[in-house]
Amino acid sequence: MKLKANWSYPTAIRFGAGRIAELPGACADAGISKPLLVTDRGLADLPITTRALDILEAAGLGRALFADVDPNPNEINLAAGIEAFRAGGHDGVVAFGGGSGLDLGKMVAFMSGQTRPVWDFEDVSDWWSRADGGAIAPNVAVPTTAGTGSEVGRASVITNSESHEKKIIFHPAVLPSVVIADAELTVGMPPAITAGTGMDAFAHCLEAYCSPFYHPMSQGIALEGMRLVKEYLPRAYATPDDLEARAHMMSAAMMGATAFQKGLGAIHALSHPIGALYNTHHGTTNAVVMQAVLRFNRAAVEDRLVEAAAYLGIDGGFDGFYAFVGELNATLGIPENLAAMGIADPDIDRIVAGALVDPSRLGNPVTLSEDNTRALVMELLD
Ligand SMILES: [Zn+2]
Hints:
13 helices; 6-stranded parallel sheet; two-stranded antiparallel sheet; 2 domains
């Protein structure tokens, strides 16, 4: 094992129920005096969004909103957001929402002063260094779900609306300056979204934990993140206003995203093309493919998951862990396969091709090939 790596855990996080009231202070810390609040269409008219705008307005920061954002945000949403940012003379973004609002908000701040197309900054080698670092506006992130962890990440996932590929856009300065993690914002999530986003957090922890790279800090964070999901996701799902469960899930989401600096794997490598082709919910898709990927990786991860099972209080080693994932999915009403998700006749060739170029595949403990990936995709059908 090579004992050399790059680690980064620098986000300032204001954690606690009711702390959305500190949004003006967070903007001040980030150097933002005229923020554009970016969220998705589904959140635009909800009371939590109105309240955030009220808080900004009362502090003299205006109440500018951009919400023309699709569930899987694309370059068209981004262009419209940049236009709103420039037209309004804004100096920073409040990225507000689940993964869609957070990812697009971060990109609006990043791209507002760039001249190259966003695809030039895909997370490939050092492409991020092509950006004009001095032209990047700051952002404050306010998660309203507990799953993506995008609030502590230096990248956004943007779907190319023409090729239907999901691209990871990376720059160190995309990292939010301040995060407000207020569990009260998550109590209104519909149960299916609580389930899907929570399983995204679990997938991040699981894949980071199983990736072969050297990152003991991530390893520990991923393990405790899985424990928090096991204890608190069923509670948050069953009792939406359980603030303690919601708070722990908010932590688990941030832990998953900090942990996956260590790498992701085949769960995400499959989920990205499936989501891009069929517009499925990201976290729910991860949950649907999770057991098939555990079977696929078994020989490489068995020892590690025996240890995880012991820490999580699961009997039966690898088999116990595997069964636990199935039971958790069932408890949360996760569909059993692609057909149950509404994908009756999936385009296997495109899913395989997408997985084989997805950067997440590089963290999978078993190398993905054309043949084994096709076999893995076939397992998702029944
Ligand atoms: Zn994810």
